Amino acid sequence: MANINNLEMASAISADSRISFKKALFGKKAYYNPTGSEIKPYKREYSTENGEIIKKMLSCPSDKLDSFFSSHERPSSTGVGPILVEMCSSSDKQFAAIQAFTFYDLDYHPIQDMQTYEGEMAKKVISFIIG
Predict the structure, then answer these.
(1) pTM of this prediction exceeds 0.85
(2) Which pLDDT value is given to residue 2?
(3) Largest alpha-carbon pair distance within the chain?
(4) CB burial readout 28-58, b (16+ within 10 A) else e
(5) Labelling 18: which of 12, 66, 87, 99 has CA 20 to 30 A away?
(6) Digitized pLDDT (tens) for each residue of the chain, 131 residues in all
(7) b/e per residue, 86-114, with b = 16+ CB within 10 A?
(8) Exposed (0-12), middle (13-18) or buried (19+): which is 128, by Cβ within 10 Å?
(9) Within 13 Å, how many C-alpha atoms sit on residue 101's CB side?
(10) Alpha helices, DSSP H only, in 1-131?
(11) CA torsion angle for 127, 117, 88, 50 (degrees, to 10)?
């Protein structure tokens, strides 16, 4: 599992007022303030084809996500791929922050800004990405 401080989206997640950090034995732990649930970071790499599905999901308006999920299968990650997806989700699945990056010129570059989801939509996004 990734460390939040090592994520490409670390500065964006740190700037989110819904997230607080507390010192832990090995660094810091993040928590979703409304529920007090711990935030866990995830990294997945995808093929170009499956990365396109993730990009479409991230650009989809919230009111259209239900129909998006019903019309798309969960994309499978690969060991190494050109699309990196980072996600932070609360243990209670009430919060998710996700950002996709593409790899070129020996570095990761954001495809778009970090997207956040709360409540039932967060649960659906987490299920779609992580399973």
Answers:
(1) yes
(2) 64
(3) 44
(4) eebbbeeeebebbbbebbbbeebbebbbebb
(5) 66
(6) 568 888 889 899 999 999 999 987 777 899 999 999 999 999 999 999 999 999 999 999 989 999 999 999 999 998 888 999 999 999 999 999 999 999 888 888 999 899 999 999 999 999 999 88
(7) bbbbbeebbbbbbbbbbeeeeebeebeeb
(8) buried
(9) 18
(10) 10-15, 48-59, 65-71, 119-129
(11) 50
Q: Which residue matches tokens 């479409």?
A: 56
Amino acid found at 51: G
Find out whether 23 and 76 touch, Cβ atoms under 8 Å. Answer: no
Query: Which of 81, 9, 12, 11 has its CA nearest to residue 44?
Result: 81
Look at residue 28 in the predicted model and tell me its pLDDT: 82
